[in-house]
Amino acid sequence: DAKTTQPPSMDCAEGRAANLPCNHSTISGNEYVYWYRQIHSQGPQYIIHGLKNNETNEMASLIITEDRKSSTLILPHATLRDTAVYYCIVRVASTASKLTFGTGTRLQVTL
Amino acid sequence: GAVVSQHPSRVICKSGTSVKIECRSLDFQATTMFWYRQFPKQSLMLMATSNEGSKATYEQGVEKDKFLINHASLTLSTLTVTSAHPEDSSFYICSARDVGPSGGDTDTQYFGPGTRLTVL
User: Fold this and answer.
1) Phi/psi at B82 (nearest 5 deg)?
2) What is the tens place of the pLDDT at every residue in A38-93?
3) In DSSP terms, which residues pair with A84 in a beta bridge?
4) Measured between beta carbons, which residues in chain A are less than 8 angstroms from residue B105?
5) Is B25 near chain A, with CB under 8 Å?
6) A39 by DSSP, 3-state: which?
7) Is the peptide bond before B8 cis (omega within 30 degrees of 0)?
8) Which residues contact A85 (CB under 8 A, 6 or more apart)?
């Protein structure tokens, strides 16, 4: 699976949009981009995934560049409860392939 | 989203004893489950892949005789830490693979809340 690069930490004011970038320049054509987050002392929570089209669900939006070499997870109105470590993971979805967790981005939402 | 439970959420045991952790998919069937371990201030590390009805596949460096995995049904996988020692103290997390209602080619792993093991 392709490697991803994320900034180690970000801050965001409550109520503002949080934009979390991820670089995956070696992504292959059959690899999806997955986003998970882990709130302290909890198991990771699935957020969203996509292949090449932008995706939106009740939690977030995923914007994937046309060349698929990078993506951005958008939390439209961040709250204090969104403080967590966010992981961007690239993997082939058609097999039971592993999720390889990197170090992620620690998002701190502040008042 | 799909729900995965783990039991117990926290366990403290004496060195040398064995501890069993259960992972259940509550509203979907999971032919594949995964077990991870997370040490403080570190990321999740995959320990093994558990397939229903067959032997688990362990990652390099994980002792299969120490971490026994059983996946006897489509909704339950267990991890037994045998002869636990203080260095096994960690946060153990399972996940279950949901292939979705149509069995399409986009599957998603859903994670349990984790089990914190402390070995004295």
Assistant:
1) -90, 145
2) 999 999 999 999 999 999 999 999 999 999 999 999 999 999 999 999 999 998 86
3) A107
4) 93-94
5) no
6) coil
7) yes
8) A37, A38, A104, A105, A106, A107
